Amino acid sequence: MATSDVLVIGAGPFGLSISAHLRHRGVEHTIVGRPMDTWRAHMPLGMFLKSEPYGSAISAATRGYDVATYARLHGFDDYVDRVGPLSLERFLGYSDWFTDQLVPDVRDLTVTNVTPEDSGFKVEFAEEGPGVRATGDRRDGPLAVHAYSRRTVRLALRPHDAQLRA
After folding, report:
1. Domains and their CATH numbers in the chain
2. DSSP letter at 114?
3. Model confidence pLDDT, tens digit, residues 51-90
């Protein structure tokens, strides 16, 4: 079983962004989820995002990982920052490129259970059973980021406080 101080649950735009920022800062972490799965599986073909292309970028810690850069590097001469919305197809291509460049270590796992355990917590996966143990060696305990709900949960597992705090 692997041990991690930070676990990012979910590999959509928010989870990918969190992981890219952590990686840039040298913070050891684990990110789990199928990259952009909700977007791929549940958005209608031919859909356009509500935001214009300049506002559809996934946040990165350094410049050069926005939709404009992706379009330029891939030879899309139809890119314009502010004329109309970005297509789902272009956004998914961009997110794949972003993932390959900045978050190549996403583990395609589905979290099924998170259980307090000693000074940390144990995370179980549909594919592997127990797979990650986050320890409480850090001053405030381990950190789990649930990217889908955009919540950061500090898991405080001291004997006097074994409840999740949002």
Report:
1. 2-34+106-165 (3.50.50), 37-102 (no CATH)
2. E
3. 888 889 999 999 999 999 999 999 998 888 887 889 999 9
